[in-house]
Amino acid sequence: MDKISAAQQKFLRDRNFHRKKILLLRFLLLVCLLAVWEIASRTGFINSFIFSSPSRIILTAWQMMADGSLWLHLGVTLGETLVSFLAVTLFGLMTAVFLWLFPSVSEVLEPYLVMLNSLPKSALAPLLIVWLGNNVRTVIVAAVSVAVFGSIITLHTGFREIDSDKVKLIYSLGGTKKDVMFKVIVPGSVPMIISNMKVNVGLCLVGVIIGEFLSAKAGLGYLIIYSSQTFRMDWMLMSIVILCLLSTVLYQGIRVLEKKFG
Amino acid sequence: MDAMLSLSHVSFSYHTLGGETLALYDISFSVGFGEFAAIVGPSGCGKSTLLSLICGLIRPESGQIIMAGARKNQTDDGSPGIGYMLQRDHLFEWRTVYDNVLLGLEIQKKLTPEKRRRVEEMLDTYGLSAFAGMKPSALSGGMKQRAALIRTLALDPELLLLDEPFSALDYQTRLEVADDIGMIIRREGKTAILVTHDLSEAISMADRVIVLSRRPGQVKSIIPISFPAEYDTPLKKRNAEQFSHYFNLIWKELKQYG
């Protein structure tokens, strides 16, 4: 296939043009928003003390990078998110496997799981502070609590939806329930496990920020609360921008994993 | 006749909250060593249930299934004397073709170099060795069924159960694969039971056709099939003059009791 027909060439050219157009428009949208924001705050159309401005946010970020405090807060939030994400992934997977292996246990636990999953986890945060203290542990437990119940339910449901004939195949080859679990259910669920990880990493970040709002001495959540109390809106908006970037990076990280195994 | 498998007065019903459904009633027949039996019947007559019962995946509510000489599924040494081929190939996409055909040996923890060599020989004989390292999606429908058959034969079962193994294939592939697989089974000297709703397939492959009635499935008649020696493959048998005779005979049986 070394010769490409004229029609195919035109198709490829059009696709390429379309892709570039979208990219350019995305970029332009960002530039426009930032420009409007900057101009509005410079001309006094909006109060720059309350609404800050792109240039002030960049300046603040620059200063905090220079004195190292930004890296501290970012590092703490990232660390807490990764630890809780790892905990949710492992605990969620292990529990889902356990529930699949013992259907009676899962039947007994089902209403409790559903209730815990729909409970607003932010309501637990004050309780966790009393129980666990004003520290990193509380933040991590809060983050895990946000993601873990949904993860268990999703994984367990996914396990049960595996083609029953594949299960029958394992039994017909003389396999046991353990063989079914580790030769069919788990390997067959890899795409579902990864898509669940995508959800979890976002939820863990939510949980970490809730935790940091209430009990932390460092982290982006802490920075947001601290800056609202001291009315430093440049800090607050910068933290939010950094959070946007962080969540995108984490999500893309899982996408890389997906491309490799999915 | 020296029976390898015999069923006597086997019945089975399914239970749901809505009630009890009698799927099979008073089934009795036997299959001799090296024989190829086909079971035909209208859909929903419990053909697949019958295979699950023979395989030992479920137990009959009454009656007996006895397998002579061979070991029943999951006995003391854990080896299934029975190989079960399902409707679709069910090759696992996360394994290579080679790892797929080794699945049974892996589960039985019998991955000896000797067994591996035998599997590699079969892959070679049946034209799959070039694809051993690929994912199943790279294979055609017919090749997938052959790989599934090798996966079943790797455990060296004495009795093969085939549950409409060609129904997922297009018509042309289906004829070829039926030819292929029929020959493989005869060459390996296996006893086989084929379940199908395709009368031509049953007549062209089997030594005997067992006709089941509509639910609850009962044995309505057992028809021995024989062709002159020159018609030695399923495809050739379809051209023999006896073929249409058998076809009409079984068709009448089915209509009469259907």
Outline the structure in words.
- Chain A is mostly helical.
- Chain A has 12 helices and no strands.
- Chain A has helices at residues 6-42, 48-51, 54-66, 69-101, 103-118, 125-132, 136-160, 164-172, 177-188, 190-214, 220-229, 233-261.
- The model of chain A has no long low-confidence stretch (mean pLDDT 92).
- Chain B has 258 residues and is α/β, with parallel strands linked by helices.
- Helix content of chain B is 35%, strand content 25%.
- Chain B contains 9 helices and 9 strands.
- In chain B, α7 (199-205) crosses α9 (241-257).
- The chains are: A mainly alpha (262), B alpha/beta (258).
- The interface between A and B is medium-sized, with 17 and 24 residues.
What is this structure, in a nutshell?
Helix content of chain A is 84%, strand content 0%. With 262 residues, chain A is mostly helical. By secondary structure, chain B is an alpha/beta fold.
Largest sheet of chain B: 6 strands, mixed
Mind telling me the CATH superfamily name of chain B? P-loop containing nucleotide triphosphate hydrolases
Computed over alpha carbons, the radius of gyration of chain B is 18 Å
Major β-sheet strand ordering of chain B: 5-6-7-3-8-9
Number of helices of chain B: 9
Strand content of chain B: 25-35%
Mean pLDDT of chain A: 92
Please give the CATH class of chain B: Alpha Beta
Predict the CATH topology of chain B.
Rossmann fold
Q: Which oligomeric state applies?
A: heterodimer
**CATH level 4 superfamily of chain A:** MetI-like
**Structure class of chain A:** mainly alpha
> Kindly, what is the distance between the CA atoms of the first and last residues of chain A, rounded to a whole number of angstroms?
29 Å
Contiguous runs where pLDDT drops below 50 for at least 5 residues of chain B: 70-79
Shape annotation of chain B: globular
C-alpha geometry of chain A: flat
